[in-house]
Design a protein that fits this description.
Elements: H1 2-17, H2 21-27, H3 30-40, H4 43-51, E1 59-66, E2 69-76, H5 83-90, E3 95-97, H6 100-107, E4 124-128, E5 137-140, E6 147-150, H7 152-159, E7 162-164
Parallel strand pairs: 2-4, 4-7
Antiparallel strand pairs: 1-2, 1-3, 5-6
Amino acid sequence: ALSATLFIVVGGLLGVSGWRDPFWLYLAPLLFVVPMAKLLWQPSRSSAHATGARLEEIVKSLVFLCDGRLVLVMVPGDQRADSEKIAKAVGCERVKVAGAEDVARATGFSAGGVAPFPLPHIDLVLMERTLLTHEVVWIGAGTSRHMAALAPADLVRLARARPVDAVAENA
């Protein structure tokens, strides 16, 4: 909030000297896009390091909106969910990742710490079937700093999950 305000104020001050100057300032964030994408989009790596688990044993609990229905999809930490496969498994036409506010409202947890159960506002729970090959998997336990280990069969039972093929081929 403070940085956004400062950014707008500096842009306005630069605009006083000429109408083109603020545009250069607005292009500055583009320099940070690639480094930030690489540094910020790996929440599972820190979880794997903290638990001593392999990345494929960490379960990402992702919330999707499928034709307006809330669906939780559990995928391995080293994989990305495939929207087309999720749409096919759910039987819907439009699938999109839920925003942080929708995630919190639907699950009661902040994104990054979603526990896969109990979730009274989630209509359906899907689980990537390759997670069943592990002896133990690690799930979010309510915050981004807490995790719990359990057998995949117990996760299916507790989350009332349906095993499906839900990950992108070349993830």
